[in-house]
Amino acid sequence: MGMGDHMLRESGMAIYKFLENTNPLLTIPLTKCSDNLDRKELKENLIETMKEAAGVGLSANQCGVMERAFVMYSDIKKKEIIACFNPKIVTESDEQILMDEGCLSWPGLWLQVRRPDGIEASYEDENGELQEIALFGLECRIFQHEMDHMEGTNFTQKVSKLRLSRAKKRQQKRKKLFDKSKAP
Ligand SMILES: [Zn+2]
After folding, report:
1. Which band of pLDDT confidence, cut at 50, 70 and 90, is reported for residue 4?
2. I need a surface site. Which of 57, 99, 117, 132 has the fewest CB within 10 A?
3. CA of 25 to the centre of ligand 1 (A)
4. What stretch of H or E contains 98?
5. Is the pLDDT assigned to residue 140 strictly greater than 60?
6. Per-residue pLDDT reduced to its tens digit, 78-110
7. Cα 111 to chain center, whole Å?
8. Which of 48, 101, 124, 146 is catalytic?
């Protein structure tokens, strides 16, 4: 798949456009990364796009790049970012916790999602080297959230229809308040 529309920056890096969250491309489970994928370029562009959108994680398919890859903050305090190619969850903790999640593809929508508290995961970095990582807390949450995107699902499918419709109403209310506060 092509890289889709994007605007070029002077540096050569690009900010991707987001697909609409109704786009069926987002429901396709992603298989192994293409052999000819320029991993370094994809990493840079995803990081630029994530930062521009003030996100903490971003999957390639959210921008129409159909590769099994995402970027995320692996340490938010230290502002460390990793790019994960062909990521895998190896083990999950038995303990599950509820945490608020948002998604760059659903701006303003917040959902309480239950997921394992800790995971062990593996991925290839941009140089093709296998990395293993143990994650807890928010960073663990981000990895799992992005893994949903890899499988063609998303966080709205992790809650009941009732919870989702309530959260969407809250999202609309906040949007109205926000629009009002912006009015002259
Ligand atoms: Zn997301």
Report:
1. very low
2. 132
3. 14
4. strand 96-103
5. yes
6. 999 999 999 999 999 999 999 999 999 999 999
7. 15
8. 146
DSSP SS3 for 56: coil
Instruction: State the distance from the centre of ligand 1 to the C-alpha of 149, rounded, in angstroms.
Output: 7
CA 98 to ligand 1 centroid distance, Å? 17
Question: Is residue 146 among the annotated active site residues?
Answer: yes
Strand partners, 92: 119
Report pTM: 0.90
101 CA distance to ligand 1 middle (Å) = 9
Query: Thinking of the domain 3-182, which architecture would CATH place it in?
Result: Alpha-Beta Complex (3.90)
Q: How far apart are the C-alpha atoms of 63 and 154, rounded to whole Å?
A: 14
Sorted by where each begins, the domain ranges of the chain are 3-182
